[in-house]
Design a protein that fits this description.
Elements lengths: L8 E5 L4 H12 L3 E6 L2 H13 L4 E5 L5 H15 L4 E4 L14 H27 L4 E6 L13 H16 L3 H5 L1 E8 L5 H8 L3 H5 L12 H13 L7 E4 L6 E2 L7
Parallel strand pairs: 1-2, 1-4, 2-3, 4-5, 5-6, 6-7
Antiparallel strand pairs: 7-8
Helix pairs in contact: 1-2, 1-9, 3-4, 4-5
Length: about 260
């Protein structure tokens, strides 16, 4: 059954730029009120401005997804400002250099906290809010870095994103228990401002030497937003994971896949 998003309340983390902004804007275009959560107030308020300029509803809340108190507060903000929570997109993430094992534990631990703990906190408190609404949808933005068995420059990032994938599938039972659907999208290279800046500093040789070299055409943030809409709008896909390898079409992983 396809779901009408008009009147729904959504919350998108890391919505101050890139993928998160594209998702927030697209949800608003479908009629959902959007809580824009980010640590960057300037970026977050710009996302709100873009949504409101298109006659959508949005509000910004400053939140560090790795901090339990902040996550509790941003979920409560959705209820206080718009009356509840129906859709949560756990998008915030990243992996600043240096990487494990060269980086100190405090540094690489922060990557784990943002990418995995943040998703778990958002999911936990999001579920509690959605239960009072009779159900909802959660979409986690992971990465192809978390898929497979090859080498990767930022092992902590790969491990955290792999954790998000397994967490998502493990929560498939929530559909039957509480009518809450959890899904996951694992894109390859996405053309965000951050990625554009990083690639602009690299030579062709450096790009080719990467474990997953960027393809000629990168995935667009708007394409990720459309995939989010697919999951939010279709209540038959609980627990499903979407992989989106570079240069290939997106596809759903079979539920009985083992490796």
């Amino acid at each position: 059954m396809m779901i009408d998003m008009r009147g729904m309340v959504s919350l998108v983390t890391g919505a101050g730029a890139g993928i998160g902004r594209a998702i927030a804007v697209r949800l608003a275009q479908e009629g959902a009120a959007v809580v824009v959560a980010d640590m960057d107030e300037s970026g977050g308020t710009e996302t709100v401005r873009q949504i409101e300029s298109g006659a959508g509803q949005a509000a910004f809340v400053s939140a560090d997804v790795a901090a339990e108190a902040d996550v509790r507060r941003m979920v409560a903000f959705a209820g206080q400002h718009f009356g509840g929570l129906d859709v949560l997109v756990n998008n915030a993430g990243g992996a600043p250099e240096p990487y494990f094992p060269e980086a100190e534990p405090e540094h690489w631990g922060r990557t784990l906290d943002v990418n995995l703990l943040g998703v778990m906190l958002g999911t936990q408190f999001g579920i509690r809010a959605m239960r009072t609404r009779g159900g909802g949808a959660i979409v986690n933005i992971s990465s192809m870095a978390g898929i497979g068995y090859g080498a990767y420059d930022a092992p902590e990032y790969a491990a955290s994103k792999a954790g998000v994938v397994r967490l998502t599938a493990a929560l498939a039972h929530l559909k039957e228990e509480a009518d809450i659907r959890v899904n996951c999208i694992c894109p390859g290279w996405v053309e965000t401002p951050t990625v554009q800046r990083a690639l602009s500093t690299m030579s062709s040789e450096e790009k080719a030497a990467l474990p997953f070299p960027p393809p000629g055409v990168l995935i667009q943030p708007g394409e990720i937003a459309e995939a989010v809409l697919m999951f939010v709008g279709d209540d038959t896909l609980a627990g499903r994971v979407m992989v989106w390898p570079d240069g290939e079409a997106r596809r759903l992983v079979p539920v009985d896949a083992r490796y």
